[in-house]
Amino acid sequence: MRIIKIFLPALCGLLINLTLPAQDANALLKSLGNNMDKISSFEADALIKVDVDFISIKDRKMKVKFKSPDKFTFDVEGLALLPKKGLQMDYLQILKAKYTAIDVGEEIIGKTKTHIIKVIPEAEDSDVILAQLWIDPELNRIMRMKTYTRKSGSYVIDFEYNDVMRPLPDVTTVSFEISNMAFPAKAMNEMMTKGLQMPDSLPKKARVIVQYSNYKIVNK
Predict the structure, then answer these.
(1) Is the separation of the CB atoms in 153 and 179 below 8 Å?
(2) Which end of the chain has less neighbouring CB within 10 Å, N or C?
(3) Nearest in space to 84 (alpha carbons), one of 135, 155, 23
């Protein structure tokens, strides 16, 4: 009987320790979602800069529109960039569906102490296999996201904010593999016919920098 009395509290303590990280992760994601849920809709102007060594792509301007809970639209002509999901806040769609969340630690980004949460969507038809979020627990907003998808490979998004309280970013930087980028056919043909670069010598990485301005936000 004494052994049982000693064993049961130890077992209960172990189970509590195993469930606490999951509870903390879910609470953090819920706070993140609640912060964005305060916004009914918004519009913003965006300037898109493509950063890749072997080809010059002109900066593009576009209008970004969002309507709660997770609908994004982009008003731009001739935009042929992939992964397109990296240009929108796709974590909103992930958080609206069923998922498993795991707290995997902390990391400093800039001067911000973030919690790292792995999110595994439970839907079998989800294009996202795994997402890793770096969340600012003080302001309930995302600082970085790495997403693994079935169709667009993986990409990393870094979020920068100028407004202390606003959950919407002023700059997002999407980093990804060249193989996940669809270049305009005219530009690719010109590059190859002029022999500017051989395929084997092309860089492997690219970045798309999106600068947002003129936010018009409607809160609930």
Answers:
(1) yes
(2) N
(3) 155
Whether 46 contacts 61, CB under 8 Å: yes
Rounded to the nearest 10 degrees, how much is the dihedral formed by the CA atoms of 73, 78, 83, 84? 0
pLDDT tens-digit readout, 85-128: 556 677 888 888 899 999 999 999 999 999 999 999 998 888 88
Question: What is the pLDDT averaged over residues 26-36?
Answer: 91
User: How far apart are alpha carbons 159 and 149 in whole angstroms?
Assistant: 20
Name residue 51's beta-bridge partners. 207
Distance CA 187, CA 57 (A): 8
Q: Enter the pTM of the model.
A: 0.79
Report the domain count for the chain. Answer: 1
| 68 exposure class (CB count in 10 Å sphere: 0-12, 13-18, 19+) | middle
Question: The CATH number of the domain where 48 resides is what?
Answer: 2.50.20
Give the C-alpha separation, 86 to 172, whole Å. Answer: 9
**Which residues sit opposite 73 in a β-bridge?**
65
DSSP string, 54-77: T-----EEEEEEEETTTEEEEE-S
Collapse the DSSP code of 168 into the 3-class scheme (helix H, G, I; strand E, B; otherwise coil) and give the result.
coil
Three-class DSSP category at 116: strand
Burial profile 85-98: b = 16 or more Cβ within 10 angstroms, e = fewer: bbbbbbbbbbbeee
Cα 49 to Cα 175: distance, rounded to the nearest angstrom = 12
Q: Supply the range of the domain harboring residue 161.
A: 2-219
